[in-house]
Amino acid sequence: MRGxxxxxxxxxALPLVVGVAGLPPHDAPDAPIHTxxxxxxxxxxxxETGMKNLVTAVLLNYRGFDTFIEVVxxxxxxxxxxxxxRGAVRPASxxxxxDGRGTGDPGAADPDAPAGANAGRLADVxxxxxxxxxxxxxxxxxxxxxxxxxxxxxxxxxxxPGGGFQAAAVFAAIFIALGLVMGRARVGRLVSGxxxxxxxxxxxxxxxxxxxxxxxxxxxxxxxxxxxHTAQEAMALVLEVxxxxxxxxxxxxxxxxxxx
Amino acid sequence: MSDVFDVTMLALLIATAVAVARARDLLAAVVLFSIYxxxxxxxWQHRGAPDVAMTEAAVGAxxxxxxxxxxxxxxxxxxxx
Lengths: 260, 81
Hints:
The complex is a heterodimer.
Chain A: H1 2-21, H2 32-35, H3 37-49, H4 54-62, H5 64-83, H6 92-100, H7 112-118, H8 133-155, H9 164-182, H10 184-188, H11 196-200, H12 202-218, H13 229-256
Helix pairs in contact in A: 3-4, 4-5, 5-12, 5-13, 8-9, 9-13, 12-13
Chain B: H1 2-22, H2 26-46, H3 50-74
Helix pairs in contact in B: 1-2, 2-3
């Protein structure tokens, strides 16, 4: 069995290694990525999209469809997780001990079972084990700076590296770090329940809105008016903010909805 | 010089990847995977892709690690043989 596993690993790895070895050198000027559409993006990207960071230009403008679907994929992943019934995938040993609690059934509260089940477990993050004051202090101290960094990345994404997706990850990291320190229930209440579905769907909704606006302006779905840089920047800004906020809320929700 | 950096990083990547697969202690595996993510961040940055590097650092080394930690907290820390 182990022999087959090695064989399979080799069968996957060998073509990969051969393929990578066949790639053109990193900075070869005649490599396909530099002569195909990439050359045009580099030549005329700034002029056509009004964005100095061409990565963002490609993400939001030239390859807007891909990003649209990407945002929908992330949203769908969260929807799938939230659609799972609560406790559906709890391990059997824990379900037994938890359900046995308070029923007065002495057989269910087996003293050996919880010890065995807990032997390899981490400390529960939801306040059962107190967090070190040093960690708590540092997280609280850093949180505003992380937020500032995320906002800076969000609004400078068209000029410098970064943008909506990166900001989303940092926003989520703030929520997650605070959740580990303050308890997830408290962090979960920071955003009102009624606003949450709208924030989670912010990415797809904003893309749909911008795509419609582009269609009204240019006659093409998700089209950008090429020489109207103000309109282009407004559209890109809406998308960046929606991706940043929506993505952050989705990632944080994934974390908060995990039971321990 | 650049080649030395690349080769070192790639060797580290392969070493951590193998270590993740071989680790029986899942907590150690998650920490190793986080190291893998951070090394990957350096590689992206060095290859001139700061946008990807940022995402890799935040998602690959940060968020994923926390999600794995919670999963271990809910299940067990030891891999069954």
